[in-house]
Amino acid sequence: MHYFTSFKFTSRHSYVELFCRIERFPILFVFDCVSICFFIRQHLKIKNFGKSLLLSLFLSSFPDNFLSFAIGRKPLLFEDKLMVPYFFAVWFLLNYFPFDLIFKLISLFKYFIFFIFGFSQTFNITRCLDKSVEIYPVDLVYELIFGLVVGIFPIFGIYIYSRIEKSNNFHLNLSFSFFIPLFISNFYFWFTDLGHISTTFWFDKEEMRLFLVLVNGFIWLFYGIFQGRFFSIFSNFVSFVISNSVPYYGSTWILDVKNINQQKKSK
């Protein structure tokens, strides 16, 4: 309460400090559970009780378990007694609430689910990068891989399961899901004191985390609203930059998606 009495709406540091008070448990973990369970329900439509429960639990708790395993401890799922109850409450409400009311209600605000997924994803990536620098202080590759794995795996795990089950309901773009964590990891690493890109040009980690969380949240929000159109615009922009930045050869690195699709249809 004392903090809120001293909060200043015109002060940037007040927002950063308030943002830093957001805890992984239960707030961000519940965000992960809600978004992952919603994506699995929407894109996989698993009818088997056990498969849905285990896959949702594995992907929702993956960032915490991966980080615990990396520092030589047991998966956090077996150490924190509150993780499973929090997860089970979210999973049950989304999948087995009477008349499916919770899922239908959340579906009305499904674009907000994309936002909180991007919000939580950035938290997980930056938190993992901070820890990886402590574990591997001089190994840049391991540090960035840590952030990428944590950011990519939840969506990638849903994709792998959809391929195993030969499901056609998966509509999230895998390339987009890979590029965003790659961008977040590198931006956070190089423009804070983690990467030491410059002794004069760098940003405070908490301010950068707040900036990236909001940026990634809105990127996923726009992706959720526009889906294929958003990725098409994004892909065309990247293609334009590459083809114009690299003389001659740049244009040869871009796949002509339209011609490829036309060739597939003609076959």
Automatic annotation (TrEMBL):
<feature type="transmembrane region" description="Helical">
    <location>
        <begin position="140"/>
        <end position="160"/>
    </location>
</feature>
<keyword id="KW-0630">Potassium</keyword>
<dbReference type="Pfam" id="PF05197">
    <property type="entry name" value="TRIC"/>
</dbReference>
<feature type="transmembrane region" description="Helical">
    <location>
        <begin position="172"/>
        <end position="190"/>
    </location>
</feature>
<protein>
    <submittedName>
        <fullName>Uncharacterized protein</fullName>
    </submittedName>
</protein>
<dbReference type="GO" id="GO:0005267">
    <property type="term" value="F:potassium channel activity"/>
</dbReference>
<feature type="transmembrane region" description="Helical">
    <location>
        <begin position="25"/>
        <end position="41"/>
    </location>
</feature>
<feature type="transmembrane region" description="Helical">
    <location>
        <begin position="53"/>
        <end position="71"/>
    </location>
</feature>
<dbReference type="GO" id="GO:0016020">
    <property type="term" value="C:membrane"/>
</dbReference>
<keyword id="KW-0406">Ion transport</keyword>
<feature type="transmembrane region" description="Helical">
    <location>
        <begin position="83"/>
        <end position="103"/>
    </location>
</feature>
<keyword id="KW-0633">Potassium transport</keyword>
<dbReference type="InterPro" id="IPR007866">
    <property type="entry name" value="TRIC_channel"/>
</dbReference>
<feature type="transmembrane region" description="Helical">
    <location>
        <begin position="108"/>
        <end position="125"/>
    </location>
</feature>
<keyword id="KW-1133">Transmembrane helix</keyword>
<comment type="similarity">
    <text>Belongs to the TMEM38 family.</text>
</comment>
<dbReference type="GO" id="GO:0042802">
    <property type="term" value="F:identical protein binding"/>
</dbReference>
<keyword id="KW-0813">Transport</keyword>
<keyword id="KW-0472">Membrane</keyword>
<keyword id="KW-0812">Transmembrane</keyword>
<keyword id="KW-0631">Potassium channel</keyword>
<dbReference type="GO" id="GO:0012505">
    <property type="term" value="C:endomembrane system"/>
</dbReference>
<keyword id="KW-0407">Ion channel</keyword>
<feature type="transmembrane region" description="Helical">
    <location>
        <begin position="210"/>
        <end position="226"/>
    </location>
</feature>
